[in-house]
Amino acid sequence: MLRDIMFADRRYFRVLLQNSEEKIASNTLAARLRSLIDGGLLSTAEDATHKQKVVYSLTDAAIELLPTMISIGNWGNKHLPASPITGPFFPYVYEQGPRVWQELADDLRHRHLGGPAPKPSAATIKSMIKAYR
User: Fold this and answer.
1) Sign of the dihedral defined by the CA atoms of residues 94, 114, 50, 25, in that order
2) What does DSSP assign to residue 41?
3) Rounded distance, CA 71 to CA 26, Å?
4) Cα–Cα distance between 81 and 120 in angstroms, integer?
5) Binning pLDDT at 50, 70 and 90, where does residue 83 land?
6) For helices 66-79 and 89-96, what crossing angle results, to 10°?
7) CA separation for the pair 81, 105 (Å, rounded)
8) Are 32 and 41 a contacting pair, CB within 8 Å?
9) pTM reported for the whole predicted model
10) What is the dihedral of CA 56, 73, 125, 111, to 10 degrees?
């Protein structure tokens, strides 16, 4: 779930369910999201466009996992079929190192926590994944 929210910007229950590579069942998805919320890695807010929808957002604790997620993704691409979400994104970002990782974390903080917008030259997850699809 964190991978899909962090790197594919899937922030709604239905989107997570319908686009799950693992074909997760709705009750399992609900339980996992609840666990991530209870664990302090996700938060929810009402969607301003629809009263019955909630949007899931990463917390700062989850964003701190970015270097770990990049490392795991890089390892996974070496040993397993590449994820359609990230393709060659992980090996590239892994090689770029902590400076780019910090720019990506700043991008996530902006989109999920309302932090300041990253500088225009900063790497963003959306632009980097798009370049490698």
Assistant:
1) positive
2) S
3) 28
4) 33
5) confident
6) 130
7) 26
8) no
9) 0.86
10) 20
